[in-house]
Predict the structure of Carboxysome shell carbonic anhydrase.
Amino acid sequence: MDTHSKPIAQRIEWLMEHARRHSEAFTSSEAYLARQRYLAQHTSAVAALKCMDGRINLSVATHTPSGIIQPFRNLGGMFDLGWPHLGEVLANYVHDQVTIGRRVLLLITYHYSKSDKQRGCAGFNYDTDAARAHTYAIKRQVEHVFGAGHSTVYPIVCGFETDEDALVLHGTNGETLDVSRLAVRDQDGLRPSLEKLFPDMPGQVRFDLEPLVLGNQARIAEVRKIERTLDVEHREWMICIGRGFDFLHMPNLALIIGPYSPDLAEPIRNAANIIESNMRAGRIPDDGFLLLASVPYAEVGVDRARAELKSRFLSQFAAEVIRAGHPALAAKMQMRTAVLDWRSRTLETIAAA
């Protein structure tokens, strides 16, 4: 259904059913075995720092089983490893992988559209050069924290061209590899290109990067055979704060704010401005919008209990910011507070207080 034009109650009902179907697909035997088989063959952990834009679905864009690529999403793809919470989350993630003997391939992404600048990243005012420069600043921070020798954590600046879902890998020598321009799906021919691009990359990491590139070639070929609607209006009708929103990989549906910046109020106000603008322009009904808070947990007991408290805090904090700055919009606010079982990707709503 066209979720954007339905009454808010129906939109929320659709969303919860969509989350349920996502969990059902993720926990299916087929999906589970696909992940296990992939991890047995490719031992490097893969993570991505990326914008909240729903078009940037790296699992789909690389033909990688769901759950392999660990996403860190935020408005505009803006991150700073000096932020206490982001630094803690990323360091814990790397530590967990290293303790089981895995290296980490970290994709630091920016996105753009080759056909229309205005389909690029609104967080950087559609300035691709500024977005790319920001990713390089993050890369330098990653090297400062985890080492410039890249023996354990290998960061790659990676462009994402949204018209064709094409990756652009930026090498250590200043050269780039635009996957959309590769002529044939040739693994033997790809290896020397990656070796030239990343001469200091450990062999296992390079081996684990290859299927991402080959999968992206296959995805680009698929996209070129279909007619895509590229010029889609901003019609977001929900503000999401927290983590665990992988099921929301759809364009122009949600504004996702990661819990990373020490100043959460500013992106919440910006998101509220966008929702209010969408209502005023008639792009979405003005009967309401959804504020959804989510925090993942890995274990029952203490971990889940902490997730509940975090989610309630984020929900209440965001609601207070919206009430203070947008009282008329706040009167139309529907709130859902949830935790996410990371093992099954099940979204579980909880009482707000």
Q: What stands out?
A: The mean pLDDT is 91. Residues 302-325 form the longest helix (24 residues).
